[in-house]
# Entry
Amino acid sequence: MPIHRQWTVFGDCHLLIWEITETPADLRQNLEVTPNEWEEFIQISHPQKQLEWLAGRKAMQTLIESQGLPYAGMTKDDYGKPHLRQRVAEISLTHTAHFIGVVMHPTRPVGIDLERIADKLARVAPKFLSGAEKLHAQNDLRHLCTYWCAKEALYKLHGTRQLSFKEEIGIEPFADTDPTLTGYIYPHQTSYRLHRFEIEDFIGIMAV
# Structure
């Protein structure tokens, strides 16, 4: 089973990173998928996107069942945020290249993102960093990737499409070695804990 890593943070957040090594036929075996999900799947034409879709659900099913909970597929709300059909936990997932990241919490909304450290982040940084964040990042690609993943994770946690990364999601300054960061969603300045991790040349952030 291609589980790259599985661990728990903050005592109650469970994460799993899945490395895609299987064929679509392999991933379909014993996979719990609802009819509505299959309708979504057949609309996907690109083979790599099909593989990511299947692997994302396989990873989520594996994580949920590893905690002794039933898995009966996923559904999406009006904003496209995924939920377990039986709502036995709160979830989030992300996929990039050959990795899938999934997270669950028993009761609290969560978000997860995984991004490769790449030059493109420097080009788009002015679109998602505040003035203070840009000053702290100093065009360091590791910092930029951390900021992007942190804001994307908080955006997923929030669950709507009405947040400005630059103006409404803030991240406190951090050091490269910090595994735990603090983020905010304005205007209410609600704070969230962020867990930072690395896999190969990717940086990941989980928000809760």
